[in-house]
Amino acid sequence: MLTDSHCHLASQRFSPEEIPALLARAQAAGVTRIISLSTCLDDLHANLAHAENPQVHACIGIHPCDVHRAPDDATEILASLANDTRVCGIGETGLDYYHPAPEGWTEEKFRERQRQFLRQHFELAATAKLNVVIHTRDLEGTASFEDALTIYQNYASVVRAVFHCFVGPWENAQRVLDAGGLVSFGGVATFKTAHQVRETAIKVPSQSFMIETDSPYLAPEPSRGKRNEPSHARIIADFIAHARGESIEHLAQHTSQTASNFFRLRSESR
Predict the structure, then answer these.
(1) In this structure, is residue 40 part of a structural domain?
(2) Domain containing 82: what range?
(3) Which of 5, 11, 163, 250 is deepest in the core (most CB within 10 A)?
């Protein structure tokens, strides 16, 4: 029924022993497919192991906050796994200008390494015929979004990108869609103060967005501040469907079809 298009099952906030129960809760809530994304080389194989379950598919990538720890040949390591049948996309990658540069790095050098890695992820995606999941975050302003969109536009003829956990105004979402990309909405859409996100979620056309949890982060209301999990995709989907004035069945159908197309999921099993 529903697809959680972005979560992190290999997060240390989920113990391996509880994953079966977590997946069962998702299934009971109608979340029949889950996309689990790596954020560093250390969690690549854990995500692939989770994707042995036909309910789960994996994306492989280096999160922008981890590029300073990743070796220069990190995307070559990712490339060696890109044809694995458990892999359905490249990411999580992107640009994070929210967190300060790590010790020993200037702000500009750290941001340039992020941009370099983002380009390398796009190159890998183009070669592997996969699509890209992008993270952007700013302390103030929209510089990370602007830079990521500019880089994406250079590859948009061969690769699609989703700007995950989208919190920007409709005008910026429209620019992503005009480039051929998608946006996805998570728990932030349910926050009482998130008027801009809700407005965007209402305006974005069907087949142009997906539902995600970004779990274990950003749990929706009324669980805000607690650990998130894939079953909460149902809460987010119910909220957005109500805001858009459509049934949960219709929203589940078109967002899951969008996820199938973007992640090139031809069936529930492999």
Answers:
(1) no
(2) 61-227+234-263
(3) 5
**Measured between alpha carbons, how far is 56 from 37 in angstroms, rounded to an integer?**
10
How far apart are the two ends of the chain, measured CA to CA in Å? 18
Using an 8 Å Cβ cutoff, are 88 and 60 in contact? Answer: no
Counted domains in the chain: 1
d(C-alpha 117, C-alpha 60), whole Å: 13
Q: Strand, coil or helix: what is 135?
A: strand
Measured distance CA(143)–CA(147) in Å, rounded:
6
How far does CA 168 lie from the centroid of its chain? 15
- In angstroms, the CA 181 to CA 85 distance is 24
CATH of the domain at 151: 3.20.20.140
**CA dist., res. 156 & res. 180, Å (int):** 7
| 30 Cβ contact partners less than 8 Å away, ≥ 6 residues apart | 1, 2, 234, 252
Burial class (CB in 10 A: 0-12, 13-18, 19+), 60: buried
| Mean pLDDT of each 10-residue bin along the chain, 270 residues long | 97 96 98 98 97 97 98 97 97 98 97 98 98 97 98 98 98 98 98 96 98 98 96 98 98 98 72
| 158 occurs within a structural domain | yes
| 29 in a structural domain | no
pLDDT recorded at residue 266: 62
Q: Has residue 161 been placed in a domain?
A: yes
Q: Which residues contact 245 (CB under 8 A, 6 or more apart)?
A: none
Beta bridge partners of residue 90, listed in sequence order: 60, 132
Which of 175, 162, 78, 164 lies closest to 128, judged by CA?
Answer: 78
What SS3 class is residue 222? Answer: coil
